[in-house]
């Protein structure tokens, strides 16, 4: 049996009512599963990728000559920013003073502000994260919600005080969600998190992990 | 183009770009980075993104070329190799179940796009030709050469 390609399934997702492959999908379990997976990936894009990358997409492309003229003042600005950069705030949530700390910031109409553990934030708010690692670590940031759904948000090497690029947009569903920052092998972190599932909501750290960890729980309000 | 218009186009076409990048890179972090790069490239032809009939094959082509380059460059930079691509079950003429990166990397990006379109995505030759903006004859010719060289390479590797 020939199945529709991803490109045909993309067209189907754009306009299911005009899709020439709708009948096939209706009868084919494999294609239905693929369409469901593609929808999930689309949701992931809207929830995580879009808010995290929109700034970069909107940034004007630099032209070489223009970049050359701007080089000197830009270097000066970078220096000023480095000098003016403040240290971590006192609002860190997680293991204060420990090897790893995590702060979540919510973008609210009143402006961005740190979120304390257990605090309510609007269910569709955008969050950004800042971590401070005493040592170089491969950091995985993931969340677990009330349904036990694990969402991996970042995985990258960090050291020092780092604001993670981009951000995440909450899914709009009221309920609890806990964000974990964990140093260690990303695959092992993810596997452990999936094994624990919804129970992780009530844990401040993954019990089987020796690496540095921090977490913050939020309550998404309608 | 106004920022709001770009943001709207990104919201509309971003999911398809992201899915294509995930399919080819098989890594969420790499796919996320690639998605923004692909979309910035696609913005150089905004008229294509405004036309729904043109947009999908256009972003498919840009995303495929970009991600195949990323796969090849990741190997050259000595970064962790990306997972090999699964070959669609409809194409038993290819001798392996997986299209390994070391075979793919031996060909130019156009041939790679054709091979991935037919062998991995399970597309008909005509669909690949339309998506990549080339003739069906070119698809057949380059695919035949790819299969021939890939078989020989795999046989040499196994010997």
Description:
- The complex is a heterodimer of chains A (222) and B (159).
- Chain A has 222 residues and is an alpha+beta fold.
- Chain A has two domains: 6-55; 62-221, Immunoglobulin-like.
- Chain A contains five helices and nine strands.
- In chain A, strands 1, 2, 3, 4, 5, 6, 7, 8 and 9 form a nine-stranded mixed sheet that branches.
- Chain B has helices at 3-25, 28-42, 46-50, 52-76, 101-104, 109-120, 125-132, 136-158, and strands at 85-86, 98-99.
- Chain B is globular, with a radius of gyration of 16 Å.
Task: Give the topology.
The complex is a heterodimer of chains A (222) and B (159).
Chain A lengths: L5 H9 L7 H6 L1 H30 L5 H21 L8 E2 L5 E9 L2 E5 L3 E4 L3 E20 L4 E14 L4 E2 L5 E9 L2 H11 L16 E9 L1
Parallel strand pairs in A: 4-9
Antiparallel strand pairs in A: 1-2, 2-3, 2-5, 5-6, 5-7, 5-8, 8-9
Chain B lengths: L2 H23 L2 H15 L3 H5 L1 H25 L8 E2 L11 E2 L1 H4 L4 H12 L4 H8 L3 H23 L1
Antiparallel strand pairs in B: 1-2
Helix pairs in contact in B: 1-2, 1-4, 2-4, 4-6, 6-7, 6-8, 7-8
Number of helices of chain B: 8
On the 0-100 scale, what is the average pLDDT of chain B?
84
Low-confidence stretches of chain B: none
Q: How many discrete domains of chain A?
A: 2
> Biggest β-sheet of chain A: count, sense, barrel?
9 strands, mixed
Order of helices and strands of chain B: HHHHEEHHHH
């Amino acid at each position: 049996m020939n199945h529709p390609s991803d490109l045909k399934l993309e067209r189907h997702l754009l306009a299911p009512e005009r899709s020439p492959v709708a009948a096939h999908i209706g009868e084919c379990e494999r294609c239905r599963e693929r369409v469901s997976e593609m929808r999930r990936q689309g949701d992931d894009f809207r929830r995580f990728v879009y808010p995290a990358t929109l700034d970069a997409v909107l940034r004007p492309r630099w032209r070489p000559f223009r970049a050359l003229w701007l080089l000197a003042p830009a270097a000066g600005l970078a220096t000023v920013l480095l000098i003016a950069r403040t240290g971590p705030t006192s609002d860190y949530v997680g293991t204060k003073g420990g090897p790893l700390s995590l702060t979540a910031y919510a973008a609210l109409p009143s402006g961005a502000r740190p979120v304390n553990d257990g605090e309510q934030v609007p269910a569709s708010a955008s969050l950004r994260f800042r971590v401070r690692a005493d040592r170089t670590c491969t950091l995985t940031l993931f969340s677990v919600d009330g349904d036990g759904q694990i969402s991996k948000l970042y995985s990258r090497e960090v050291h020092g005080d780092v604001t993670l690029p981009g951000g995440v947009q909450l899914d709009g569903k009221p309920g609890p969600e806990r964000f974990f920052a964990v140093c260690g092998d990303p695959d092992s972190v993810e596997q452990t998190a999936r094994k624990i599932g919804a129970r992780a909501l009530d844990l401040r750290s993954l019990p089987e992990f020796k690496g540095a960890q921090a977490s913050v729980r939020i309550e998404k309000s309608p | 183009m106004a920022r709001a218009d770009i943001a709207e186009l990104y919201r509309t076409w971003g999911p398809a770009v992201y899915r294509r990048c995930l399919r080819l890179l098989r890594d969420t972090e790499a796919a996320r980075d690639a998605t923004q790069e692909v979309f910035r490239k696609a913005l150089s032809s905004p008229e294509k993104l405004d036309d729904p009939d043109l947009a999908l094959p256009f972003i498919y082509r840009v995303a495929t070329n970009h991600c195949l380059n990323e796969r090849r460059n990741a190997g050259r930079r000595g970064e962790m190799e990306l997972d090999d691509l699964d070959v669609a079950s409809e194409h038993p003429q290819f001798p392996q179940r997986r299209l390994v990166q070391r075979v793919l990397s031996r060909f130019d990006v156009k041939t790679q796009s054709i091979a991935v379109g037919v062998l991995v995505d399970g597309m008909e030759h005509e669909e690949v030709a339309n998506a990549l903006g080339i003739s069906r004859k070119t698809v057949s010719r380059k695919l035949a050469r790819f299969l021939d060289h890939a078989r020989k390479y795999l046989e040499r590797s196994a010997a």
